[in-house]
Amino acid sequence: MKKFPLFILIAASFLIAGESNQTRPSQEHNASLSEQNLTLKHIKEQQEREKKYAKEKAFYEGKDYNLSDKKISPKEIESVPTIPPEDDFDMSDVYN
């Protein structure tokens, strides 16, 4: 009767040890899958950054834009009247 609990304890420890050996490869597999998923996520993020950069680069280079109809001649600039300021800003009253 004293040997029965000892036998159950030993059998349970063997079962637990056996299960941990079976789950270890799947944990390693899950870790490698999560690394692959993380790598794919980083690749997609970098591709989106590169698309954004390509869009901005096209904008800043201005190859696709025709701005010739927006040019202003010097004669047009001379014809614009000078607008004097309405109020002369004076702070001398504040310091008296």
TrEMBL record:
Keywords: Coiled coil, Signal. Residues 85-96 have a biased composition (Acidic residues). Residues 30-63 form a coiled coil. The keyword Coiled coil applies. The keyword Signal applies. Residues 74-96 are annotated as: Disordered. It comes from the Bacteria. Residues 1-17 form the signal peptide. This is Uncharacterized protein.
